[in-house]
Amino acid sequence: MITIVPIDNDPPYLHADDSPREATTDEDLTITVRLYANISTVPAPLSYWYNDGPSTEISMDPGPSYTATITVADTLDSLWYVIIARDIYGNEVTTQPRRVWITDNDAPTLVYDLTLKSAITGEMHTIRAEVADNIAID
Questions:
Q1: Do the strands 41-42 and 66-71 form a parallel or antiparallel pair, or are they unpaired?
Q2: I want to staple 68 with a disulfide (CB 3.0 to 4.6 A). Which of 19, 30, 40, 60 is the partner?
Q3: Half-sphere exposure of 101 toward its Cβ, with a 13 Å CA cutoff?
């Protein structure tokens, strides 16, 4: 009897990336990809970062598609990510970096109204306020 042991040296590949290309500050962004391997994939980590900042690695949830959810930081820097796909034989491939454009949709808020409560007709009246924003105040 002859026993044949299969050897898998084909790395998995990214079949499709269904993730949005835009996201907004302080909201969830779900990265969704479809991976293919000729044998079987193992949970794929996702590594993400903002422009030149440090990277963070998180696990992706397996299923028909692999998904991971990131709460977008309060920044206008682009979010970048790569996916490291591995199969059960240790074959591995890392995707090219993908960019997600970040926009700020959070309005500034009035913290304190510091304006005097009364004014005199014909004289200048200064309106003062303290405001806050997740990015910056112009």
A1: unpaired
A2: 60
A3: 4
